Amino acid sequence: MPQSTLFVNTNGTITFGASLSDFTPFAFPSGNKIIAPYSTDVDTRGSPDVSGDGLNDVYFSERTNQTDLSTISTIVHKAFGGAFAATSAFVATWDHVGYFSSHADKRNTFQVVLATDWAQSYVIFHYLDQGMQWEVGDADGGVGGFLPIGGKGTPAAAGFDAGDNVNFSTIIGSFMPGISTTLQNGSNISVPGRWVFQVHTSVISSPPILLGDINNDGLINAVDTDLVLQVLVGLTPTAAIHFASAGDVMPMASLTTAMHC
Questions:
Q1: Which helix (H) or strand (E) segment is 169 a member of?
Q2: Does residue 172 register a pLDDT over 50?
Q3: How far is CA 205 from CA 12, 62, 156, 169, 235, in A?
Q4: Each residue of 138-165: pLDDT tens digit?
Q5: pLDDT tens-digit profile of 40-70?
Q6: What is the Cα gyration radius of the chain?
Q7: How far is residue 183's CA from residue 79's CA, in Å, rounded to a whole number?
Q8: I need a surface site. Which of 61, 134, 171, 244 has the fewest CB within 10 A?
Q9: How many CA atoms within 13 Å lie on the side-chain side of 106?
Q10: Count of CB atoms within 10 A of residue 151's CB?
Q11: Dihedral sign of CA atoms 5, 7, 8, 14 in order
Q12: 259 assigned to some structural domain
């Protein structure tokens, strides 16, 4: 169903219908309409915190210029084939963001692209430029941005939820230690750090090599993730599509932020 309003939430998600302030990643289905490139406890308050400096910033913009749309269309075509020429795209970028509580010693850079020709729609997740450095905020059990060995907490997650309690998808490795590496070095289109999904049907579709039960043991777990990474890790990462510039900095009043009690 077409959506007329979306919310870019500080904690690594885009939602429809309402904003989302949750800072702890939660399992799908959740009853919420969510696109989550990296659901986790992002904190943009770490020093230095200067709007538009490329550190601890969240950008967004709608793209209609032909250069950007052609680049996006080429990515989709390489992933799925067929005829697709994007006529509009929405891009949100979390640029070198830190983690709760006000930590900036490690930073993550990730991006989501929503593209459509009004008949087909696709979502692209980017984790490029070796920019994924942390997984867990302090309030979720993290120490130094990661879950300690034997510790209890909730690492980041990536995926989709249609909000109907039927259609949802989570990238394998979500909620598990190592998810930052999985997303940065893994892929479903053989380009490390790039993930492409078809979302205009009721079932979210991926190119054929999406992570799954690689070793045919009847389980989908970290073993399968490791097997895929062994194949992908030798590939050379490509440069990110840096659509967002300092001029696209989202006013902080418009961002949905989490409240820690």
A1: strand 168-170
A2: yes
A3: 21, 24, 22, 9, 24
A4: 999 999 999 999 889 999 999 998 888 8
A5: 999 998 876 666 666 888 989 999 899 999 9
A6: 17
A7: 17
A8: 61
A9: 18
A10: 12
A11: negative
A12: no
- Number of domains observed in the structure of the chain: 1
Buried b / exposed e across 128-144, counting CB within 10 Å, b at 16+? beebbbbbbbbbbbbee
Contact 125, 111 (CB under 8 A): yes
Please indicate, yes or no, if residue 99 is contained in any of the structural domains. yes
250 is a domain residue:
yes
Given the DSSP bridges, would you call strands 157-162 and 88-99 parallel, antiparallel or unpaired? unpaired
| pTM exceeds 0.85 | no
* DSSP structure string for 182-248: HHHH--SSSSTTEEEEE-SSSS-B--TT-S--TT-SS--SHHHHHHHHHHHTTSPPPPP-----GGG
Residue 137, in any domain of the structure: yes
| CA dist., res. 215 & res. 192, Å (int) | 21
